[in-house]
């Protein structure tokens, strides 16, 4: 699915749940996205999705499994961002959904350091990507 970065004015305001940070799967919005993915002591794997996208719906249980599996990891956090937030985030470009982005530790405020995952949309495929990215960045595996 292609994501429009133009607002139709029809999207409901995406509210941040109070418990978003305590969840295994971190919930990001335009309000907390930049500060969360650019915090130096963590690497963040984000799936940008749209609830009406069949590919996103298929990917959601895999994403929840990843979040649960890595919830105790010292540096890696797994997060989701609804595509309706993309237009409000400066320097974030998403052409299709689902888009999976890895933000390494020590990124500062530069969103261009993200690495987009282009592999198989499977648990094994994404885990291999995580392992490769964490190894490159010398984060704990």
What does this structure look like?
There is one protein chain. Residues 4-12 have low confidence and may be disordered. By secondary structure, the chain is α/β, with parallel strands linked by helices. It is built from three helices and five strands; from the N terminus they run E-H-E-H-E-E-E-H. It is globular and about 35 Å long. A five-stranded mixed sheet has the order 1-3-2-4-5. The longest helix is centred in the middle third of the chain and has 16 residues, at 54-69. The protein has helices at 33-37, 54-69, 123-136; strands at 25-28, 43-49, 76-82, 99-103, 115-117.
Instruction: Label the structural class.
Output: alpha/beta
Number of strands: 5
Calculate the mean pLDDT score and round it.
87
Shape: globular
Q: Output the radius of gyration.
A: 14 Å
Biggest sheet, in brief?
5 strands, mixed
Q: Approximately how much beta-strand content do the residues carry?
A: 15-25%
What strand line-up does the widest sheet have? 1-3-2-4-5
- Distance between termini? 32 Å
Low-confidence stretches: 4-12
The secondary-structure element order is: EHEHEEEH
Proportion of residues in helical segments: 10-25%
